[in-house]
Specification:
With 756 residues, this protein is of the alpha/beta class. The chain contains 31 helices and ten strands. Helix 4 (90-101) runs parallel beside helix 15 (333-362).
């Protein structure tokens, strides 16, 4: 009755006020008399008017900008994924995406499409948005620098870093001497041209280098500490030099630039001595996410913007101000991670790809159209590699590093990536670099970044010292090996208790590995160790209580679910345990909302769809991440839904399909190691119809009497299911159970969903 009354009220309200508005419009038409209102031309049809309006909307600057952003993000994500699959940094794919969308490819072969998507008049909006992205990115780069760590580790690093700057800088100026007359724009002084080539040759991409170091698991070694410190010192030195070079270029001479440099030094002194203590105090007063209000966030954003504004006005570029603002942020690791989360996704996913494409729109590889120009490009690449690679390697060898470590440092310091593009764009904006030399330098940035991975592999092959996330003691033992992958430490404890329940009386013949992966873009590179120790502390304490020996693995990852399966497959484990928490029951009966955020573009899903793998999980009650792990893992997978039911004394095992016989192995393990009471249910007649399953259960009854019973009644109610603490079920069985929409489903205990 209440629903009918609400419906009548809704219809009546909408109807009455719609008629009232219609009447007002009719009366309003009478007010148009004498106001010379132009009616549409008689020859124009309503369809033509619609088409004209639609085309106008498509050509509106906001529509064009939004279409550009969508195209750029999709292209950058897809090509970044392709590069990751071939072992290259994703930044390579993002740079290539810019070149693909620019005049070098799309503009060359599809000029009409390029002109429609990137009209000349729209590039100003794209440039300003990309500059905002760069400002936010440089701010985060500054926050990644731990000045206290630099003080403690900078002795050898300063020698290596400065040698890796001065040699390529000198070679860059020497190169400028030979190509100045041919390639320098008219009106540009040799000093400006030479200084910019020098600084471009000297840059190292600290963020890309740090990511490679963590991906290759050398960040905990002495070599990793040295090379990250070298890159950090390099960053600070190179950006200080760049600020001075910009000041000299804008002033026209070194003497004139001294005024700008003096003001810049005063600005740095003020930021360190006045602003930094103030921000530190604010950080101490508001150290957690809960008490960080919007007003507090506004203080830090204003500091960033004002710092960028100040350096732009001084004449040393807004990016230096953003970098400086990042370095003076409060040193508390949690605070920096928390603040980075607020800007990183917008900066890296949305705005930074705009910079790559804007760079690509400026890069015309077609300008390098004869052998001579390609020879000059090759010379630029040779000078870049010689200066940076040899300069770093020889300096490292001079301070008594081994040849292996010296060459590794050289290969890593030769990585240029995004930082090189930043410098090149500044030079292009100042009119110092011509379109030809700009394109050559972009190619050099791509080559030197691309070669880092192969160079490191070659060095490892030569010195036969291959490093891997998989410890030898894990991959070589001939035991029953379980790997527990967790995100939340509390879930890690639950998974460890479950793993222990499967092996506790066979510890000598089993191994348990705890794996924790964190997103690569949410951690401060210097504080990985602190984060790792904090994440594993509850699991280690739990392992001590259980007397369960564990091996811990930690990695910062760009693609967590892919890395989980890669590590599991390479380690030749016998069971992978993952957790998805109570959220499987939220949002709907079958719990499609699992609390995970899916990626905007997931090419792996596209490949699974094309290859037919996706059909395996059609209408699956699992989210994208879990499905990806299930489809990629070559070992059995256990998905644990923890409902905090305590000990697993009473276990229910439904047999729904003829393929559920593999569950017998896990029943045996639970009974043998934890002495649980198992109730096998037969809702689909599987046990009755499959002789081998029935015989296996009888064998368990003979070996462990009173530990297993068969419940043949198909009708299960909430009272019956309430006596159990754990349900063990196959993925196929779980799907059938969910599809059945049984009334007692929401009352099930903790669940272990197994796939053979």
């Amino acid at each position: 009755m209440k629903k009918i009354r609400n419906l009548l009220f809704y219809i009546g309200t909408i109807g009455v006020f719609s008629m009232l508005m219609y009447w007002i419009v009719l009366k309003g038409k009478l007010l148009e008399l004498g106001r010379d209102i132009q009616a549409p031309e008689g020859g124009t049809s309503q369809w033509a008017e619609f088409v004209s309006s639609f085309v106008h909307n498509l050509q509106h600057p906001l529509s064009i900008l939004l279409a550009q952003i969508v195209t750029i993000i999709l292209t950058a994500r897809i090509l970044g994924w392709v590069c990751k699959k071939i072992g290259q940094p994703t930044v390579i794919g993002e740079i290539i995406a810019g070149i693909v969308l620019g005049p070098s490819l799309i503009g060359l072969y599809f000029p009409e499409f390029s002109a429609a998507l990137f009209p000349v008049q729209s590039l100003g909006n794209l440039q300003f948005l990309s500059q905002i992205g760069l400002i936010l990115f440089m701010f985060m780069v500054g926050m990644e620098l731990d000045l206290n760590t630099l003080k403690n580790k900078a002795h050898e690093a300063v020698v290596i870093s400065h040698a890796s700057i001065i040699l390529p800088f000198a070679l860059g100026i020497g190169l400028a001497y030979f190509i100045y007359q041919t390639f320098a724009p008219m009106g540009v002084q040799f000093l400006s041209f030479g200084l910019f080539l020098g600084i471009a040759m000297s840059i190292t991409a600290f963020p890309v280098l740090a990511r490679i170091v963590h991906e290759r698991e050398i960040h905990k070694t002495r070599l990793g500490a040295i090379v990250i410190t070298c890159a950090a010192v390099d960053d600070i030195t190179a950006w200080s030099l760049l600020a001075a070079v910009i000041a000299i270029v804008k002033a026209g001479s070194f003497v004139s630039s001294l005024y700008t440099i003096a003001i810049a030094v005063g600005y740095v002194f003020f930021m360190i001595k006045a602003v930094r203590p103030f921000l530190k105090r604010v950080g101490e007063l508001y150290p957690t996410r809960e008490n960080m209000s919007k007003q507090v966030v506004a203080i830090f954003f204003l500091t960033l913007i004002l710092s960028s504004y100040a350096t732009e006005v001084i004449g040393i570029h807004a990016l230096f101000g953003a970098f400086m603002a990042g370095t003076i942020m409060p040193e508390n690791t949690r605070f920096r991670n928390m603040f980075t989360e607020k800007v990183e996704d917008v900066a890296l996913v949305l705005l930074l790809p705009l910079f790559f494409v804007f760079t690509g729109l400026r890069t015309e590889i077609g300008l390098i159209n004869d052998p001579y120009l390609w020879k000059i490009t090759g010379l630029i690449i040779l000078v870049a590699i010689t200066g940076k690679f040899l300069g770093s390697a020889l300096a490292a060898r001079f301070v008594r590093q081994s040849w292996h470590d010296s060459l590794t440092i050289g290969a890593l310091m030769n990585t240029r990536g995004l930082m090189e593009l930043v410098v090149l764009n500044i030079g292009y904006d100042l009119g110092i670099l011509s379109p030809e030399i700009f394109s050559m330098m972009v190619i050099m940035a791509l080559v030197t970044t691309f070669m880092t991975g192969p160079a490191l592999d070659l060095i490892e092959r030569i010195f036969r010292k291959k490093t891997s996330i998989i410890h030898d003691r894990i991959s070589q033992v001939s035991k029953f090996k379980i790997i527990v992958s967790f995100g939340n430490p509390e879930m890690g404890r639950s998974l460890l208790r479950l793993a222990n329940g499967l092996v506790k009386k066979q510890i000598e013949n089993t191994s348990v590995t705890a794996l924790h992966l964190c997103p690569n873009n949410v951690l401060h590179h210097y504080n990985m160790d602190d984060y790792e120790n904090e994440s594993f502390a509850p699991i280690i304490r739990e392992s001590e209580l259980l007397s369960q020996k564990i091996t811990t693995l930690f990695k910062a990852s760009d693609d967590i679910d892919d890395d989980i399966t890669e590590i599991t497959n390479k380690g030749d484990f016998d069971l992978l345990l993952i957790g998805i928490g109570k959220s499987i029951f939220e949002g709907s009966l079958l719990g499609r909302i699992l609390g995970y955020t899916t990626r905007m573009v997931n090419p792996d899903r596209l490949i699974q769809k094309v290859s037919g793998k996706e059909k395996m999980f059609e209408n699956s009650p699992f989210d994208d991440r879990t499905q990806n792990i299930l489809s990629s893992s070559k070992v059995p997978v256990g998905i644990f839904v923890d409902k905090n039911t305590g000990n697993f004394d009473q276990v229910i095992v439904p047999f729904y399909t003829e393929n559920d016989g593999f569950l017998i192995e896990y029943i045996q393990r639970l009974i043998k190691n934890s002495e649980v009471q198992v109730t096998a249910t037969d809702p689909a007649g599987t046990i009755r119809n499959r002789i081998e399953i029935k015989e296996a259960i009888r064998a368990i009854e003979q070996e462990a009497p009173n530990h297993i019973t068969i419940h043949s009644d198909k009708n299960i109610d909430e009272e019956f299911i309430g006596q159990f603490q754990l349900m063990v079920i196959s993925t196929e069985g779980w799907k059938k159970l969910v599809d059945s929409r049984s009334a007692w489903l929401n009352q099930v205990p903790s669940i272990l969903i197994l796939r053979a």
